[in-house]
Design brief:
The structure holds 3 protein chains of 3 kinds. Chain A is of the alpha/beta class. Chain A has 2 domains: about 160 residues, D-Maltodextrin-Binding Protein, domain 2 (3-Layer(aba) Sandwich); about 120 residues, Periplasmic binding protein-like II (D-Maltodextrin-Binding Protein, domain 2), CATH 3.40.190. Chain A contains 11 helices and 10 strands. In chain A, strands 1, 2, 3, 4, 5, 6, 7, 8, 9 and 10 form a 10-stranded mixed sheet that branches. The longest helix of chain A is centred in the N-terminal third of the chain and has 19 residues. Chain B has one domain. Helices cover about 75% and strands about 0% of the residues of chain B. Chain B contains 21 helices and 2 strands. In chain B, a hairpin with a 6-residue loop joins strand 1 and strand 2. The N and C termini of chain B lie far apart (about 75 Å). In chain C, helix 1 packs antiparallel against helix 2 and helix 3 packs across helix 4. Helix content of chain C is about 70%, strand content about 0%. Chain C has a two-stranded antiparallel ribbon. Chain C has 2 domains: about 60 residues; about 80 residues, no CATH class. The chains are: A alpha/beta, B mainly alpha, C mainly alpha.
Chain lengths: ~325, ~500, ~160
C-alpha cells in the first residue's frame, strides 16, 4: 500500500515537473523571473506616461508576470521609441504605446524616414480614445460649425489653431476644409496648452482640442464653447454638444493610445497580453484612478484595433499631401 | 473671504507637520537638482509623481512646487563657481557670475543671487495670490506677433552692446541660430540638417552644448596655460557688501518685473526671462563694458527674473489650466493624478488646496533664502580645493550632466565637442553670449514669425497693425540704430576736430 | 590672432556655402510666408558675408587700435605642452563616452579621474586613488540611491558579474 502511494506521489510530482518545465508551448508565457517592458515613447510625466504607469501594476497582476516595467524612450515625437519597439524581439516581453494618429502620420511622412509601419507592428489593445472637438471662446459669435463655415465662405479669414502639424486637430480641420469646400487657415501651435491660450486670447477664430482634463473645466465654466465633436456619438460629459456628423460633416477624429508589439508575435501571446490588459482596465480600483485623472478609457481587442488603425490610416493618406496648406 | 484671510488660513495649514515636512523636502530636493547639471526640475518632478499618489494632493503639490522653484536657487551655484550652468535658466548667470568668482567675489555673487531669487520668487507668488485672474486674462492678449517682436527686442538688446568686434559677435549669433535650426522644423514638421539621424530630430540639446561650451571650454583654457592651483583669486568677503546691494537694487526690481511678465505668458522659458533681464541691464548701465567681466548687475537681474518667472508660471496654470512650461506641465500632471483639475473652478472648488499651496510657496522662498545665505560660505570653500584636483571633478560633473539630459551617451559627445569649440572660440575672442542667446531664442523667433503669418493668413500687416508688436519692433530698431547713430556722430565730430586742428584752430 | 581669425572666417564661409546648399532642398516659401528653407538660406548667406567681412577687416586693419581686453595678453597658440594637455582631456572625455556603456560608470570614471589626476594634476598616488574612488563609486552611490538618477552599468558580462 505504501509503495503504491509513493509511486502515485512520484508520478504526480514528475507530471507536475513536466507540466511546469519550460517548453515550446506559449502556455508558459510570461516566464517566471522575466520582466515585461512597456516602452512609452514620450518623456516621463508627459503624454500617456502617467496613464501607462497607472495601468502597469494592474497588467502585472492580470498577466501574472514577475515584473512589468515602464521604460521611457522619448524623442522625435514618438519616432525614437516606436522604432525601438518595432525592432524589438517579438517574444512578448517588449510592448509599447503607439499613440494615434501620431504613429500613422510619422510613418506616412516620407521626410521622417520611419523604419516602421503597421506591417512591422502587432496591435494588441486600445487603452484610451479621446475625441477631438472644435471650440471657440465665449466671446466668439459662432455657435455652430455652420456659422464658422458661413463666415469663411463670406470671405472672412478663419483661423483654426491645432496642437501641431498633422495632429488629430489638424487632420480634423483639413477634412473640414475638404467637406465644406472652403479655406480654413491652420495655425500650428506647440501643443494643447498653447492652442487653449490662442483660443482664449482671441488670437484665432477657433481651435481643436481634446475633451478631458483642464479643457473640460474651461468648457463647463463657459470660457470655451464646443462647436462640434468629431466622433460618432455624443460625449457623456457634454450631452448638449453636437457631433460634427449631426451638423452635416461626418468627420471622425480622435487621439488614442494603443498598445502594440513588434510584428511576428505568436497568436497565443497576443491573446494573453490583450486579455490581461482588458482585465486590468476593468479593475474597479484602476477605473477609479483613471477617472480621477480624467482618462477616457476604451478597450479594443487586437482585431478591432487593427481595423480601427487601418481605417484611420486609409483616411489619413489623402490628407498627407495637404499638410502644407 | 478676502485674500489676506485666505492666505492666513493657508499659512496655518502649511505648518501642519506633513505639509511642512514635504515643503522642506521639496525645497531641498529642488536645490540639489538645480546644483546638478543636466537634470532639470521637469524630470525630477515626473519621477516623483508616483510617490505623491500616496500623499494628500496638497502635500504632493507643495513638494512638487518646492522642487520647481528650488531648482532656480540651486542652478546658480555651479554656474558661478564652475562656469557650468546646471539649468538653462542659469546660463546667463555664468557670464558675469563666474568672472566674479574668479576675482574672488564668488560669495557676493551667490549671495546676491539668493537675495534676488527670494525677492523675485516672493513677488511672483504675491502676484499669484492677489491678481491671478487679472494677470492671466491680460496675458492671453499676448499673441505670436508680440512674442516674436519681444524676442527680436531681446536679441537687439544683448548683441548691440557686445564689446569687441561686432562682426565676430554677429558670426557667433548666426552660428547659434544655425544650430537652432537643426531638427524637425517647428512649424511644418520637416527635418532640417539631420542627415537622417532620428537622434537629431529634436535638435541638438541646448544644455549639453552649454555645459560643454562654458564649463568644459573654461577648463581647457585654464589647463592649456598650466595646470596650476590658483585659478580663483583669494576670496574676499563672503557676502555682498553695501555697495553691491545698492548696485543690485534696481536690477532686482527690473528683473522681477521682466520675469513676472514672461511667466504669465504660456510658452516662455525662464532662460528667456534671464536673457531679457541681462539685456536690459547691459543697456541701462552707465558703463556697459563692465559686463562679461564680473558686473554684479549681470547676476542680480537675471537671477531675480528667473525666480519671479517660475512663480508667475503658476498663474495661467491655476486660473485656466494652461501649463506654460514643461516643468509646470509636470506639476499639472501631478495635480491631476491626485484628482485636482486646474481651471476656472480651482479657486472656487478647492480653496484649501490653492491657498495652502500659495502660502507654501511664500514660506518656501524664506526657507530657501535662509538655507542658501549661510551655505554661501560652504560653497565658496569648494573653491579652496586646489584646481589641479578640482578640474577633474568638474569634468566628471560635465559628463554626468551631459548624460543626464537624455540618459544617452550621445550628449556626452555633444558636450565634449562643444567644449572643444568653446575653448577655440574663447581663445580667438569670439564672444559666447550672442551664441548662447540665439541658440535659446532662435527657434522661438522663427516659430513665432511663421505662426504670426498663419494667424494673419499671410498678411505682413500683422506686424505693424497690432500696437504692442509695433512698439516692441520699434524698440528693437531703436536699440540698434541709436548706438550706430551715436557712433556716426562721434566719427563726424572727430573728423571735424582733426580737420580743425589741421587748419590751426578756429 | 589674425591668421587664426582668417582661418576661422574661411571655415565659416565654407560652412555658409554648405548651409545654402542644404537649404535649397527645403521649401523656401509657402503661400503664407517663409517655409523651412527660408531661415537656413539666409543664415548661410550671412555666414558667407560675415566671414568675408572679417577677413577684409583683418586685411585692412593695420592702423586700427587693438581692442584691449581685460585678460592679460599672451601668445595665442599654446606651446606643445599646452596643446597636449588639451588633447588629453578632450580625448579622455570622448573615450569615456565611448566605453561607458561597456564598462559602466564606476569603472570609466574611476579610470578617468585617476589618469587625469596623476598625469595632468600631478597628484600623489594616494590622493589620486582616494579621490578617484569617491568620485566614481561614491558619486554613483549617491546618484542612484538618493537622487534616482540611473547612471550607466557595465554591459560586458565579466564586469556585470562583478556587479558593475
Amino acid at each position: 500500500m505504501k509503495n503504491k502511494f509513493k509511486l502515485a506521489v512520484s508520478a504526480l510530482s514528475i507530471a507536475g515537473l513536466l507540466l511546469n518545465a519550460p517548453s515550446a508551448s506559449a502556455a508558459v508565457y510570461p516566464a517566471k523571473g522575466k520582466t515585461i517592458t512597456i516602452i512609452v515613447p514620450y518623456d516621463a510625466g508627459g503624454a500617456g506616461d502617467i496613464g501607462a504607469r497607472m495601468l502597469a501594476p494592474y497588467i502585472k497582476t492580470a498577466i501574472g508576470a514577475t515584473n512589468v516595467e515602464i521604460v521611457n524612450k522619448p524623442g522625435a515625437g514618438s519616432q525614437v521609441g516606436i522604432s525601438a519597439l518595432a525592432a524589438a524581439n517579438p517574444d512578448g516581453y517588449t510592448i509599447g504605446f503607439t499613440h494615434l494618429p501620431a504613429t500613422i502620420t510619422t510613418y506616412l511622412d516620407p521626410t521622417r524616414a520611419a523604419t516602421y509601419d503597421l506591417t512591422k507592428l502587432t496591435p494588441l489593445a486600445m487603452m484610451v480614445v479621446v475625441p477631438t472637438i472644435l471650440v471657440v471662446r465665449a466671446e466668439s459669435k459662432y455657435t455652430s460649425i455652420k456659422d464658422l463655415i458661413a463666415d469663411a465662405k463670406g470671405g472672412a479669414k478663419v483661423t483654426i489653431s491645432d496642437s501641431g502639424i498633422l495632429s488629430d486637430g489638424h487632420l480634423a480641420s483639413l477634412q473640414l476644409q475638404q467637406l465644406a469646400g472652403v479655406k480654413l487657415q491652420a495655425v500650428h501651435s506647440t501643443g494643447g496648452a498653447a492652442t487653449t491660450a490662442d483660443v482664449l486670447g482671441g488670437q484665432v477664430s477657433a481651435g481643436t482640442l481634446n475633451v478631458g482634463g483642464a479643457t473640460n473645466e474651461l468648457i463647463k465654466s463657459g470660457k470655451l464653447r464646443i462647436l462640434g465633436i468629431f466622433s460618432k456619438t455624443k460625449d457623456k460629459t457634454f450631452p448638449t454638444a453636437k457631433t460634427a456628423k449631426d451638423q452635416g460633416y461626418p468627420i471622425y477624429v480622435s487621439t488614442s493610445r494603443a498598445i502594440s508589439g513588434p510584428a511576428g508575435m505568436s497568436a497565443s501571446v497576443v491573446i494573453k497580453i490583450s486579455s490581461a490588459i482588458r482585465t486590468a482596465m476593468l479593475n474597479p480600483e484602476f477605473v477609479a484612478k483613471a477617472n480621477a485623472a480624467g482618462l477616457y478609457l476604451k478597450f479594443m481587442w487586437p482585431n478591432q484595433l487593427q481595423t480601427y488603425w487601418s481605417e484611420m490610416q486609409t483616411a489619413t493618406i489623402p490628407l498627407m499631401a495637404l499638410k502644407n496648406s | 473671504m478676502d485674500t489676506l484671510t485666505l492666505l492666513f488660513h493657508g499659512t496655518q495649514a502649511v505648518f501642519q507637520p506633513l505639509n511642512f515636512l514635504f515643503l522642506i523636502l521639496g525645497c531641498v530636493l529642488g536645490q540639489a537638482i538645480g546644483v546638478l547639471p543636466g537634470i532639470g526640475s521637469a524630470a525630477a518632478i515626473a519621477l516623483l509623481i508616483p510617490v505623491t499618489l500616496n500623499l494628500s494632493p496638497t502635500a504632493s503639490v507643495i513638494m512638487l512646487a518646492g522642487i520647481f522653484y528650488g531648482t532656480n536657487y540651486g542652478g546658480t551655484i555651479t554656474s558661478v563657481l564652475m562656469n557650468t550652468p546646471g539649468e538653462s535658466a542659469s546660463v546667463v548667470t555664468a557670464i558675469d557670475g563666474y568672472q566674479m568668482a574668479k576675482k574672488g567675489r564668488g560669495g557676493p555673487a551667490l549671495g546676491i543671487a539668493a537675495i534676488g531669487s527670494f525677492i523675485g520668487g516672493t513677488v511672483g507668488t504675491l502676484g499669484l495670490a492677489f491678481g491671478a485672474q487679472w494677470f492671466s486674462d491680460t496675458a492671453l492678449k499676448i499673441g505670436a506677433s508680440e512674442y516674436f517682436a519681444l524676442m527680436i527686442f531681446a536679441v537687439a538688446l544683448v548683441t548691440v552692446l557686445a564689446t569687441g568686434s561686432p562682426v565676430k559677435a554677429l558670426l557667433m549669433g548666426v552660428l547659434g541660430l544655425l544650430i537652432g535650426t537643426i531638427g524637425i522644423d517647428p512649424d511644418l514638421g520637416i527635418p532640417r540638417f539631420t542627415f537622417g539621424q532620428i537622434k537629431l530630430y529634436d535638435g541638438i540639446n541646448f544644455i549639453a552644448i552649454v555645459i560643454g561650451f562654458f564649463g568644459l571650454g573654461e577648463i581647457l583654457v585654464n589647463i592649456e596655460r598650466k595646470v596650476q592651483d590658483t585659478i580663483y583669486t583669494q576670496v574676499g568677503s563672503v557676502l555682498p557688501n553695501k555697495q553691491d546691494l545698492r548696485d543690485s537694487a534696481a536690477p532686482i526690481a527690473r528683473g522681477t518685473l521682466i520675469g513676472f511678465v514672461l511667466g504669465i505668458i504660456p510658452g516662455a522659458t525662464s532662460a528667456i526671462a534671464s536673457f531679457l533681464s541681462y539685456g536690459v541691464e547691459v543697456n541701462r548701465a552707465k558703463d556697459p563694458s563692465r559686463f562679461g567681466k564680473g558686473a554684479i548687475e549681470g547676476v542680480a537681474g537675471p537671477e531675480t527674473a528667473n525666480n519671479s518667472f517660475v512663480n508667475a508660471n503658476f498663474i495661467p496654470l491655476f486660473t485656466l489650466g494652461i501649463p506654460g512650461t514643461a516643468s509646470i506641465a509636470m506639476i499639472m500632471s501631478g495635480m491631476m493624478s491626485n484628482g485636482i483639475v486646474p481651471g476656472p473652478f480651482l479657486f472656487r472648488d478647492n480653496p484649501d488646496f490653492v491657498w495652502t499651496v500659495i502660502a507654501s510657496m511664500l514660506i518656501g522662498q524664506v526657507i530657501l533664502l535662509v538655507f542658501n545665505l549661510p551655505m554661501v560660505r560652504i560653497w565658496v570653500l569648494l573653491l579652496k580645493i586646489p584646481y589641479s584636483i578640482l578640474f577633474v571633478l568638474i569634468l566628471e560633473f560635465t559628463l554626468i550632466g551631459a548624460y543626464a539630459v537624455s540618459y544617452d551617451t550621445f550628449n556626452m559627445y555633444v558636450m565634449t565637442i562643444s567644449g572643444f569649440f568653446g575653448y577655440l572660440f574663447k581663445k580667438m575672442d569670439f564672444p559666447a553670449t550672442p551664441f548662447v542667446l540665439t541658440l535659446v531664442i532662435g527657434p522661438l523667433i522663427e516659430k513665432n514669425l511663421r505662426k504670426s503669418l498663419e494667424i494673419s493668413s499671410g498678411e505682413f500687416a500683422i506686424f505693424y497693425q497690432r500696437p504692442m508688436t509695433l512698439i516692441l519692433l520699434l524698440g528693437a530698431a531703436f536699440t540698434i540704430i541709436w548706438p550706430v547713430f551715436k557712433w556716426l556722430k562721434m566719427r563726424l565730430k572727430n573728423q571735424k576736430e582733426s580737420s580743425r586742428s589741421m587748419n590751426g584752430g578756429a | 590672432m589674425k591668421r587664426a581669425e582668417n582661418i576661422t572666417a574661411s571655415i565659416f564661409m565654407v560652412l555658409g556655402i554648405f548651409v545654402i546648399k542644404g537649404a535649397t532642398s527645403l521649401i523656401y516659401m509657402t503661400d503664407i510666408g517663409p517655409g523651412p528653407g527660408f531661415f537656413p538660406m539666409w543664415l548661410g548667406v550671412l555666414l558667407l558675408f560675415l566671414g568675408m567681412l572679417l577677413i577684409i577687416q583683418n586685411v585692412f586693419s593695420k592702423k586700427k587700435a587693438e581692442i584691449v581686453s581685460a585678460e592679460p595678453t599672451e601668445p595665442l597658440w599654446p606651446g606643445k605642452a599646452g596643446a597636449i594637455r588639451v588633447a588629453i582631456v578632450v580625448l579622455s572625455l570622448l573615450a569615456v563616452a565611448f566605453f561607458i556603456s561597456y564598462v559602466g560608470f564606476r569603472v570609466a570614471i574611476f579610470l578617468l579621474i585617476s589618469s587625469l589626476l596623476y598625469t595632468l594634476g600631478k597628484q600623489k598616488i594616494l590622493t589620486t586613488l582616494s579621490v578617484a574612488f569617491v568620485g566614481s563609486f561614491g558619486v554613483y552611490f549617491v546618484f542612484t540611491h538618493f537622487l534616482y538618477v540611473e547612471l550607466p552599468k557595465a554591459s560586458l558580462s565579466l564586469l556585470s558579474a562583478l556587479g558593475l
